[in-house]
Amino acid sequence: MWRWPDTTRINQPLPKKALFAKFDWSSAQRAAVDSSISRMVLTRLISPATVPALAEGTEVKSFYVVEVQLKQKSYAPEVLTLLAKAIPQRMLFELHYADEVQWATYQERLIASAWMPMGQQELRLLQGTQLDTLWEHLLRDISGLQQQADGCSVLEQLKRNEARDKLLRKVALTEKRCRMEKQPRRKAELFKQLTELKRQLESFDKSIT
User: Fold this and answer.
1) What is the pLDDT of residue 125?
2) pLDDT of residue 118
3) How confident is the model over 6-49, as pLDDT tens digits?
4) What pLDDT is stored for residue 158 in this prediction?
5) Angle at 50 (CA atoms; ends 81, 2), nearest 5 degrees
6) If phi over 0 gives left and psi between -120 and 50 gives alpha, with beta otherwise, what is residue 11?
7) Which of 4, 92, 124, 170 has a Cα-to-Cα distance from 142 of 20 to 30 A?
8) How many CB atoms lie within 10 A of CB 36?
9) What is the value of pTM for the model shown?
10) Cβ atoms of 42 and 65 closer than 8 Å
11) How many CB atoms neighbour CB 46 within 10 A?
């Protein structure tokens, strides 16, 4: 995993009361944050100023590491999404519950790692690289996605995976309906639809290999 240099440490508390006062959240949103999170601390600032070997990126100028102490392991993902959208900074959440840790961030969607034992969550920066490259590396490590041959980004891969999963669900549903259908004409129509869906799936798979 990655290790942060000592120069990145800031340890700045992020009180929930201050967030509630600053942002126009609904009572339900405040309750969700309060019931899910015990405390938050900005533990690290990753930028060229704190890591001179890093170059500022075109998209990523800096990002914060936020340690989040959870009240329960099964938190609502919407809580992190709410925080990420409200605070105009890139944030990498280090979620703690009991003796386990999970990494998460939000970029168009919530991306989270598997839970891991405390002590195995340390993150190691890529030295002498650009922040855009580093951020993409973090996203790839957190998501667990391997780099594809066409070099597409993690977000592009996630979108592709979602599109393929949606197509697979359509294939499975149509196959089930085709098996259950008794009327010959309707069964033929469903079989035609199934053939087209499978053709789309085969074409989709060929386009990403």
Assistant:
1) 62
2) 86
3) 999 999 999 999 999 999 999 999 999 999 999 999 999 999 99
4) 73
5) 60
6) left
7) 170
8) 18
9) 0.77
10) yes
11) 25
Write out the chain in H/E/C secondary structure. CCCCCHHHEEEEECCHHHHHHHCCCCHHHHHHHHHHEEEEEEEEEECCCCCCCCECCCCCCCEEEEEEEECCCCCCHHHHHHHHHHCCCCEEEEEEECCEEEEEEECCCEEECCCEECCCCCCCCCCCCEHHHHHHHHHHHHHCCCCCCCCCCHHHHHHHHHHHHHHHHHHHHHHHHHHHCCCHHHHHHHHHHHHHHHHHHHHHHHHCC
> Quick one: tokens of 106?
């939000």
Tokens of 98: 């009991």
Distance of CA 19 to the CA centre of its chain: 22
Distances 144 to 20, 104, 114, 189 between C-alpha atoms, Å: 34, 12, 9, 40
Other CB atoms within 10 A of residue 106 CB: 19
Q: Choose among 198, 151, 28: nearest CA to 206.
A: 198
pLDDT at 94: 95
Tokens 């790839």: give the residue.
Answer: 140
Look at residue 157 in the predicted model and tell me its pLDDT. Answer: 77
- Give the whole-angstrom CA distance, residue 205 versus residue 209: 7
Low-confidence ranges of the chain (pLDDT < 70): 1-2, 120-128, 146-151, 207-209
Amino acid at 142: I
